[in-house]
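User: Can you predict the 3D structure of Poly(A) polymerase? Sequence below.
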Amino acid sequence: MKITGDWITARPTQSVCAMLTGAGHQALFVGGCVRNAVLGAPVGDIDIATDARPERVIELAGAAGLKPVPTGLEHGTITVVSDHIPHEVTTFRKDVQTFGRHAVVAFADDLPADARRRDFTMNALYAQPDGTLIDPLGGLDDLHARRVRFIEDPAQRIREDYLRILRFFRFHAWYGDAGNGLDAEGLAACATNLDGLATLSRERVGGEMLKLLDAPDPAPSVAAMQAAGVLHAVLPGADVRALAPLVHLESETNTAPEPLRRLASLGGRDVADRLRLSKPQARRLALLREMPTGTMLAPELGYRHGTTDGADILLLRAALLETPLAPDMQDDLARGAAARFPVAAADLMPGLSGPALGQRLADLERRWIASGFSLTREDLL
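Assistant: Sure. Here are the predicted structure tokens for Poly(A) polymerase:
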């Protein structure tokens, strides 16, 4: 079997492969680019595995007129930039000793050793520069079956890096078959290794959770996380009940997936801190968690928060309260977003100032909103 795609035949990528193979080394595409090519999904990052040592990769890249960047030299990874396109070239490796995220690795000379140290069988697929597929661990059958399966012993793979617990659910959300559930052996290993999640940095956990929640329908995977105790370990107090209704409402309204909207539906304590969200992300999450509990109608939401945040608030409110969306929601939001309050502070001066001025403006604004934005400046004054 061969994989195809513009990315694999592109001259910059083939130049990186030729740089290695021309010197007698192997050059094999690996991981996500191969997996996505098999599925017919878009390919982003291009990873290449090789038996050439990192120093040799740097030497060969320089001689070929390409730019080598030692982005992960201690782990055997050199980013080779070819015509502005980065290619992560990593020497075959094998684990010698593992303890969480920090593993002692040694370079290997054969592909099977490199394959066995990866996380899931669907990520241990390789392809030659001409696209010929190499499947050393049966990952192709798992990929076709949409089965996310750890390589060999799931518990051992997890202890090598506890983030793989979250990756297990994330990959199921993106590539798994929700109808068949999660791999039972992998799920059991996740449940029995929960304590390891506490050793992970909040940035890594937050990044993984947002990637999971960006999947087309993460609800079955997050429900499995909750059942296994993983969701509580990451986000104490979170609950998945509103997520499936929210995804359904998104589909009904042709609303694109948005991780923070879905994260807001889960609730939980200290979420922004536990996931180390950026300040803009934390502010938006706070807005999305606070507003659905209020009674502000669509026109006012559009006026105060714009159409995007306003729509997210209404979607969350409907999901949390299990109520239908108003058919004219989008029109009402747009009408509110386009409205401009016709009274300025200067219109009330010099008769009013300070807190009294602010109170009067707020009162007039409420009257104007209640009128459906119909009262004019003259009416209000």
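The chain has a mean pLDDT of 94. The longest strand covers residues 85-91.
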